[in-house]
Amino acid sequence: MTLLDRLFGFGSDPHAATRPLWHAAVVAARDPHWYSDLGVADTVPGRFDMVTIVLALVLLRLEDEPDSAAESVRLTEMFVEDMDAQLRQSGVGDLMVGKHVGKLMATLGGRLGSLRDALPNPEEAPLREAVERNVTLEKPELAGALARQLKTAAQRLAEQPVEELRRGRLPQLAR
């Protein structure tokens, strides 16, 4: 790659191999079932919550693969790029974008930690409490149903061969 290619963004896409998985995670987070049947608020905060929750589930799945650290980093970079673009599109000024992205990254990290702690627990309460803390719900009474579905989604991801994930083939997570 020449200096001009690097300066002007020409050349290969460093995220090309991971892009199908990123797109699949976003599509899974937008599944209407999360919103219509499991009580997630169909708002910008609710959709952001589901993108971070689904991405966290995928990242946790990749943690189980010894050679997937670089892929996890690329997925996280794609999250940052997407959030940066969304913030700029919504009118957030250049000086504030970094601060907002930092908060969004902290949110993703918090959700990763919450799910990492709650998913292995055989009791529903820890995951339900994590859902209540981390997801904007229109119907809080459905937090338990959402927690059970997230547990099922994590199990389905665990059963999915990592090569299929890398191709952007996620199992059905929302139903």
Give a short synopsis of this structure:
This protein has helices at 3-8, 19-29, 32-36, 44-63, 69-89, 94-118, 125-134, 143-159, 162-166. The chain is an all-alpha fold and 175 residues long. It has one domain (16-165).
Q: What's the number of structural domains?
A: 1
User: β content, as a range?
Assistant: under 5%
Give the beta-strand count. 0
Name the poorly predicted regions: none
Helix coverage percent: 55-70%
Number of helices: 9
Overall morphology: globular
Structural class estimated from helices and strands: mainly alpha
Task: Give the distance, in angstroms, between the N- and C-terminal Cα atoms.
Answer: 45 Å
Main sheet record: none
Q: What is the succession of H and E elements?
A: HHHHHHHHH
User: Mean pLDDT across all residues, rounded?
Assistant: 90
What integer value in Å does the Rg equal? 17 Å
